[in-house]
Amino acid sequence: MQVTQQPTPPPGAYTPTDRTVPTRSPERASYDKELVHSILDEAYVCHLGFVRDGAPVVLPTLFARVGETLYVHGSTGSRPLRMTGEPDPGLPVCLTVTHVDALILARSAFHHSINYRSVVVHGTAHQVTDPEEKRLALDALVDHVVPGRAADSRPANKKELAATAVIRLDLAEVSAKLRTGGVNDEPEDLALPHWAGVVPLRKGYDTPVGDPALAPGTALPDYLA
Amino acid sequence: MQVTQQPTPPPGAYTPTDRTVPTRSPERASYDKELVHSILDEAYVCHLGFVRDGAPVVLPTLFARVGETLYVHGSTGSRPLRMTGEPDPGLPVCLTVTHVDALILARSAFHHSINYRSVVVHGTAHQVTDPEEKRLALDALVDHVVPGRAADSRPANKKELAATAVIRLDLAEVSAKLRTGGVNDEPEDLALPHWAGVVPLRKGYDTPVGDPALAPGTALPDYLA
Questions:
Q1: Which CATH number fits domain B26-180: 3.30.590.20, 2.30.110.10, 2.60.40.10, 3.40.50.720?
Q2: Topology given in CATH for the domain delimited by A26-181
Q3: Is B100 helix (H, G, I), strand (E, B) or coil?
Q4: Interface mutation vs chain B, best among A47, A116, A224, most B CBs within 10 Å
Q5: How many other C-beta atoms are found inside a 10 Å radius of the C-beta of residue B90?
Q6: Which of B22, B43, B61, B142 is the 20 to 30 Å CA partner of B73?
Q7: Interface touch A57/B78, C-beta < 8 Å
């Protein structure tokens, strides 16, 4: 579904399509692959949308990126995974990731906003059936939560691998959308007495809490320090 | 779409339906209204899913709760709002909110998880056309971002009200889902040398940054201090 007369995208960018060009605030859209990857990689969960019985369903789900492929985690019993079926016709999905970076408090109610970075991926998801790809995808899912962690954990055994389903979604029809910067009040409102500004939201970890049953002498790993 | 032979829900709970009873980890589901409200009220954005040309679309959107009604913000030009049409047939939507509270690092790759709280709302959204309801909804949207803020800002004028569209979605078919607690490793893995535990994520504000053009003497309001 290419937009007609769309200019050729620069190298390192996704090609815009009818459904990745926003109708609202198109100046906030980006198709830059590095930017898209960074937004995806920073998120702990995505929101996966699919259609069931004609109605939309949106579920939060763990995911990971490997190059230009996303892997989405589920159990073999979960609804979107069962819908990919056997033989797998593919499940049309929309996968969305959003970071809220700051609250924008304007003098006018109308110009209140948030600074955010989001990515929307349209495509068709398929079950991962190749055992080697599945194993790599599960490592990627663990490393997505904490980089370096997959190598520092007991790998999945056969029973666990069988109980876990993974679906893949290629990054092809993709866009990012961002709001950055400060307050955009109307010039005639600047003298109003209301405080206006940017309220950044806190990011990152608080102090990790070790499991009470940790083996004696187990230190906090460097990747959490 | 009621589940047959479902017991009567307790007062203060939503009635489970076929699509609000999860197929996976049903013990993590809750229909408690207070819990649902608290999860919704703490979120800055929701993910709004709808169907366009047979395919799912999931977009991050500002929203607010007033009692048992959600109001979702948009411009009059945005796709989901245009789809509600005139006369308004209603747009089937799924509105989902998720908080990631902590990362769960297990000794086994398989038991890695996150602590989260999510709410999924199924229903049909309608445009708000009553001017008074729209004004109240816009106040609620501002107060949702920072409680008490609507009264400390310049209210929307006629032009701004006309440029803003609001859709409403009643809280009827609703469920929450939560994971709390610590690591759930297999007993035979407890002696493994891998660190395991809970990594809480940071929440809340960092120091607010005032707009450079603030009127002289404008103090940081108490609701941000």
A1: 2.30.110.10
A2: Pnp Oxidase; Chain A (2.30.110)
A3: strand
A4: A47
A5: 15
A6: B22
A7: no
CA distance B211 to A165: 49
Partner A, chain B 32-51, Cβ-Cβ below 8 Å: 44-45, 47-51
B98 touches chain A (CB under 8 A): yes
Q: pLDDT by residue (tens digit) across B125-166? A: 999 999 999 999 999 999 999 999 999 999 999 999 988 899
Distance CA A45, CA A59 (A): 10
Is residue A26 reached through a cis peptide bond, with omega within 30 degrees of 0 on the bond before it?
Answer: no
Mutate one of B192, B211, B218 to test the A interface: name it (highest A CB count within 10 A).
B211
pLDDT tens digits, residue range A145-201? 999 999 999 999 999 998 889 999 999 999 999 999 999 999 999 999 999 999 999
Q: Do B199 and A208 touch (CB under 8 A)?
A: yes
